[in-house]
Amino acid sequence: MTINRLTSQALTLDATPYDSLFAQPGDNDAVSQALQSIQPRLTDTLTHFLHPSVPSRFMVIKAPGTQPYLDTLHELVSQQFTGSDSLYGGHYRFSTTDVTFGKPETEDALFCTRPNVLSTAWAETEQLCGCIRQFNGELSAQPGLLHRANGGVLILSLRLLLEQPLMWLRVKQWVTRQVFTWFAPDETKPLPVTMPAIPLDIRLILVGDRDELAELEALTPEMTEIAVYSEYEDEILINDEQDVIRWRNWIDNRAQNKGLPRPASDAWPRLLELATRYTEDQCSLPVNPLWFERLFTSIATITGTETFSGEAFQQLLEQQAWREGYLAERILDDILDDQVRVDTQGEQVGQINALSVIEFPGHPRPVGEPSRISCVVHAGDGELTDIERKAELGGNIHAKGMMIMQAFLMAELDLDQQLPFSASLTFEQSYSEVDGDSASMAELCAFISALADVPVYQNIAITGSVDQFGCAQPVGGLNEKIESFFTLCAARGLTGNQGVIIPLANVRHLSLCEPLRSAVEQEQFYIWAIDDVFDALPLLTGLPWSDEIQGRNNLMQLVQERIAQASQQDARHRLPWPLRWLNWFNHN
Known about the structure:
By secondary structure, the chain is of the alpha/beta class. The protein contains 24 helices and 29 strands. Helix 21 links the parallel strand 28 and strand 29. It is elongated, with a radius of gyration of 32 Å. Its EC number is 3.4.21.53.
């Protein structure tokens, strides 16, 4: 049995060991090289891709194709790219009858460039490929990004090309053949003059997420086979102090490049806490440009100095939580007003408090919500009815969790016959689709409670998925789930016997708010970490699943006795009607 009652120190990352690091001034050289330090795989792949001897002209990077990511990749590519001093492209001469193209001579010509790095998240056809204009009988040509990046590197969001597939096919052909040929965007209106082709020496980097990369592979599999591949890693694992130093240098690097304030020494611990809450892991820190810009741009609005204090940072976070907290408050109000029933005291058979997390479209943060799962058992043929699934409100993963939970219980009971009961399980007062397996541990405990006719304590909530051996498996959204139940208990008044049960593997994912940590420290609220369902049942019911000592009550014994009683009654009813008077002898 592995039941760990967690202390307040386990509920968030302890930043104390790093206080001395944050008090030291940063190393300017390390700050300038921070991107290369936190992205060693990507840096090495870029060095390989940009080497003149590498034949491939294409590289794909798994990362969101948004501007903050492209800006970060632009900086990293620029640090690795060492172009020559040669001029690329050429220049056009227009006459009244034709157009000629000459070799590059000076940088003044529109289509003459020196090697450089360009990037964009979106571009129309003219912006990417240039255009030919005719005004008052005079012709002129305007270069696009492809021409301006000639001899260098062009970084594009993959979404840009996938939403314009014909343009992507042209770009692929130009880059592969190393020549740019002009075309008429409108096939009904050909170019006013024949334009000579331009030599094109360019390396193209495409940035997209997994789905976009899959779509690219389906569209042009031959290109993805030869493209160089790498990923932007959104997190850095904390193995020692050096990893924290590298993360601090990355923060300083981003703040310096974007002209944003950097944390003072007393703000770093709170920033570390927020960072591990974002990654949902005490052992990793985010290096996500979107997270950084969203957070530090907000900080810049409340401070005009080069640094911000821990007090100012805390004030900002509280203001953000209040501004974005309307939905969470409404969910809590519905429960407190008894519009949604969630008990936090007493006992109920077949009823348990589970924890859910909801992500509303467009809402900036997930919202935790306590939910009530109920199970009723009646005479039947052993069928377990998932009401959510029957009503087409349950997703496939939820259905899988239900089947795994049922398989464990049937194997554990080791029956030589069909279970003489049928049961139905549901999320009470749930009116939208339910998916995920994070409630399967709660559903299993409610099922056992209903079978054994033993009540479950309502002052405890539980989250976690379960496997076919009854082991507790980690789930996501843990912090929001725990805090939602704590907030409800605190609103009704903490009694000193309330708490939450979580899988042991989830302990490293905790980054809980200060009021909750304080309540745990004062033993007004508890968090237990368990290894399997056998650890959860004594906490929820006061009885173990099984007991080697004869004579002691346990849940398995109660379930087996109830099954035996139901089977005996069922056997009597199976006699033909004229012979059922024989049951009188069996009864006596």
